Automatic annotation (TrEMBL):
Subunit structure, interactors included: Homodimer.
This enzyme's EC code(s): 5.4.2.8
Domain of life: Eukaryota
Species in which this protein is naturally found: Amphibalanus amphitrite (Striped barnacle)
Positions contributing to Mg(2+) binding: 12, 14, 225, 237, 239, 242
Gene Ontology molecular function terms on file: metal ion binding; phosphomannomutase activity
Record-given protein name: Phosphomannomutase
Gene3D superfamilies assigned: 3.30.1240.20, HAD superfamily/HAD-like
PANTHER family found in the cross-reference section: PHOSPHOMANNOMUTASE
Similarity-based family: Belongs to the eukaryotic PMM family.
Any Gene Ontology biological process: protein N-linked glycosylation
Keyword tags: Cytoplasm, Isomerase, Magnesium, Metal-binding
Cofactor(s) essential for the protein: Mg(2+)
Length: 264
């Protein structure tokens, strides 16, 4: 057997190794496991570790680490190498409770003045790496969600929220993002149809590259499906530290890897 190539194959999860929001197929699991004979393998996803493990191994974390030398959950805020945790970061450590309370208080005050046809609960969801804000509330039903999409398209509720947050916290170095829905598919991680994501600038998937850029790889090949501007793979796809590969689905990802490694 030929020696492993000094390459890192770094994969997005959702839409690349798995179909959107689905679990990996047995065939793709076998292929991913076999790749470690040819190159170093890693995954980087916007979801938390349990969600990534559920999609890639039915919730078995050890199985994921056996397939992938590098596992970057939440864009690398939670980072593993060889199954060992090497880094963990969160919003509290980055921004501090004083700022976060000011941000949350302002946001709640702003939302209290927004008049909508209806509101439900869970307007602010605090996550490890982002704050998710929903003017209607994430407790809404699917029918209520769909109605809000129509209302938001006409009245620009989320666009006004983004403008207000960018104005109030213009010196805080935050990214405030609305997802772009094209053909029913969300283009920005987490923001869905009803909410806005807020996170420190640089906390996209390029965050993970700091842990591999000095590891001696001849090249870092990134494979992702949302590589167009506005997609959550765009920044790492365009990063000069990677060789970007845009894929359409898991079968296309496999085809491109096989061509790269000359396995077919």
């Amino acid at each position: 057997m030929a020696p492993r190539k000094p390459l890192l194959l770094l994969f997005d999860v959702d839409g690349t190794l798995t179909k959107a929001r689905q679990e990996i197929t047995p065939d793709m699991t076998g292929f991913l496991s076999s790749l470690r004979e040819h190159a170093c393998v890693g995954v980087v996803g916007g979801s938390d570790l349990p969600k990534i493990c559920q999609q890639l191994a039915g919730g078995d974390e050890k199985a994921v680490h056996s397939m992938c030398e590098y596992v970057f959950a939440e864009n690398g805020l939670v980072a593993f190498k060889g199954g060992e945790l090497i880094h963990k970061a969160d919003l509290v450590g980055k921004l501090g409770d004083e700022f976060l309370q000011r941000f949350i208080n302002f946001t709640l005050g702003y939302l209290s003045k927004v008049q909508l046809p209806l509101k439900r609960g869970n307007f602010i969801e605090f996550r490890n790496g982002m704050i998710n804000i929903s003017p209607i509330g994430r407790s809404c039903s699917q029918a209520e969600r769909d109605a809000f999409v129509v209302y938001d398209t006409e009245h620009g509720v989320r666009s006004a929220l983004v403008a207000a947050l960018n104005s109030e916290f213009r010196d805080a170095n935050l990214s405030v993002c609305i997802g772009k829905v094209e053909d029913g598919r969300e283009k920005h991680r987490g923001s869905g149809q009803i909410s806005v994501d807020v996170f420190p600038r640089g906390w996209d998937k390029t965050y993970s590259l700091q842990f591999v850029e000095k590891e001696g790889f001849e090249a870092i090949h990134f494979f992702g499906d949302k590589t167009s501007p506005g997609g959550n793979d765009h920044a790492i796809y365009e990063d000069p530290r990677t060789v970007g590969h845009s894929v359409t689905d898991p079968s296309d990802a496999r085809r491109q890897v096989e061509e790269l490694l000359k396995l077919r």
